Amino acid sequence: MTMNRRTLNIALAAASLGSLLPASAFAQKKLVLGFAQVGAESEWRTANTESIKSSAKEAGIELKFSDAQQKQENQIKAIRSYIAQKVDVIAFSPVVESGWETVLREAKAAKIPVVLTDRSVNTKDDTLYVTFMGSDFTEEGRKAGRWLTEKMKDQKGEVNIVELQGTVGSAPAIDRKKGFEEIIKADPKFKIIRSQTGDFTRAKGKEVMEAFLKAEGKKINVLYAHNDDMAIGAIQAIEEAGLKPAKDITVISIDGVKGAFEAMIAGKLNVSVECSPLLGPQLMQAVKDIKAGKTLPKRIVTEEGIFPMEVAAKEFPNRKY
Ligand code: AHR
Description:
The chain is α/β, with parallel strands linked by helices and about 325 residues long.
């Protein structure tokens, strides 16, 4: 093969440049994702954080991660710092539904796309985010309600329910309550006699259940907890009160974390509705798609099931969180 002088000069220049510059100079610039997490309030949240961190690593995406300790102002601060750092995409799981418009407008003005994961915001302006990926919390509440009404369909007399709500103002607390009530209201024998927040934590779940037991004692037939952690805390309170969880008091919760499966296998929890925290792979794909200019659906719903205690032992080895 012959080379003219010009081609030869270009080839020599490229070769000498290659030996002078480090390999990283030729590598593609990594995408940067800023993620503002709610906190570390539950087993579910720990699994969600792990899923996001490991998927970012696997996808070769640089992750800037912050933990808001369940405080909206901390999440807003984190989002503003990601805007200042000019990250490629911002994602977050909003601790509560309202109060996001200002900071989302700031992200939009800076032309940084925002992805909502796990929980949504209640803005009318859906141009403030690209997509919302996560569970249908209302349907989770309905599943819990359907399981209960089916189990107690032949029961005569009132069914007194106490409810442990999630964080006040959060999408899962609002929607899980709504979905559950939608189903039980069809039969007036089902009555929610007490309802209070346990903030999605074991400690608060136990504390509030102790108060419920003190006030209502043996009148309580059912505990509906908006997540497994609160149910696990409440189970402890029920046992300390000398009652048998899942027998004297039917216990229903949501998430399907390993801790709930252990409680079901031990015969202390009747049922857990699944809510998957494994959103990391989907999120990383969305980040890549957004940067590639693809259009994403506004809503990506996670597929989920329900696990009564009868299937817990068989299902346990398949659980990933
Ligand atoms: O937003 C999802 C909820 O938040 C989970 O059900 C709960 O465990 C978590 O803290």
